[in-house]
Amino acid sequence: FWERAKFREDDWQVFLKVNRKFAEATAAEAAHGATVWIHDYNLWMVPATLRELRPDLKIAFFHHTYFPSADVFNVVPWRREIIGSLLSCDYIGFHIPRQVENFVDVVRGAMPAERLAWESCAPRFLTYGCAVGLDTMTTRLRVGDREVALGAHPVGTDLRRIHNVLARSDVRNDIFKLRREIGARKLVLSVERLDYTKGTLAKLEAFERLLEQHPDRQGKVTLLMICVPAAREMTIYRTLQNQIEQAVGRINGRFSRLDWTPVRFFAQALPFEEVVAHYAAAQVMWT
After folding, report:
1. Which of 1, 66, 140, 249 would be a feasible disulfide site paired with 117, CB 3.0-4.6 Å?
2. Which residues lie below 8 Å from residue 235, measured CB to CB, with a gap of 6+?
3. Biological process (GO) annotations (predicted)?
């Protein structure tokens, strides 16, 4: 979604101030030689300040959101500052090897860097035959007088917990009720939090085009969308929520029948057990 990006110097200055507060608070709390684990792009600039304040600390960073390719990341005006801050870490983790190499490409495009160590992606990761496959992954990088370790760590799913939930009689009963309610129709399920990066509005527009271009699908498929709202303080998302609700109303207004509502939309968080039941009842999970 780089085309949606808007870069304002005053926003960047606020970002720096907030990150500095996190770094100062961490510096005041951490024991000598402690390991500090920082999470995601919201705190990109913490490592640089923290390294300055507490050179004794070991700093690790995990990038939860997808780290983009260099041609996308390089549209950011402050890319060198961000990369410089991340390189203040001792270790940086990403989900998959492709994201590691995206980071390496960005670094090498911004400053001289030496690839010190690498490893084969197989057999842990897919190498060939998928869109983001790689055969090797950089595990150590030198930039100037600093060496930074890199790694890929996919955030997994607690399968045992899911199996235990599915074995419960109340959850099985919920699955039966959901399937009975949907009937012979196909159920497409989308569960996500309210954020434009999740593409919720785009999904609704795509579903609307499906019903337009394939009238034979009308009455045969239901989109169940569960969207966890943002915190009340995050007023920036109110416009997006209004757009989503208007799209739901428009689609249902155009295509609904007495016995079928195309989109079922819930702007609320559901207990884990209910989420599992919905996934089990659906034929398609739309992520």
Report:
1. 140
2. none
3. trehalose biosynthetic process
Q: Which of 86, 83, 140, 129 is nearest to 109 (CA)?
A: 83
What is the spatial distance between Cα 195 and Cα 237, in angstroms, rounded to a whole number?
Answer: 7
Going from N- to C-terminal start, the domains of the chain cover 2-152, 159-285
Beta-carbon count within 10 A of 210 CB: 15
Q: Is the backbone peptide bond immediately before 123 cis, with ω within 30 degrees of 0? A: yes
Q: At the fourth CATH level, which superfamily is domain 2-152?
A: Glycogen Phosphorylase B; (3.40.50.2000)
Query: 199: left (phi > 0), else alpha (psi -120 to 50), else beta?
Result: left
Phi-psi region of 33 (alpha: psi -120 to 50; beta: other; left: phi over 0): left
Q: Per residue in 106-163, pLDDT tens?
A: 999 999 999 999 999 988 887 887 778 899 999 999 999 999 999 999 988 889 999 9
The fold for domain 159-285 equals: Rossmann fold (3.40.50)
Strands 35-39 and 91-94: unpaired
Are 66 and 96 spatial neighbours (Cβ–Cβ below 8 Å)? no
d(CA 43, CA 37): 11
154 to each of 64, 65, 100, 275, how far by Cα in Å?
9, 11, 12, 21
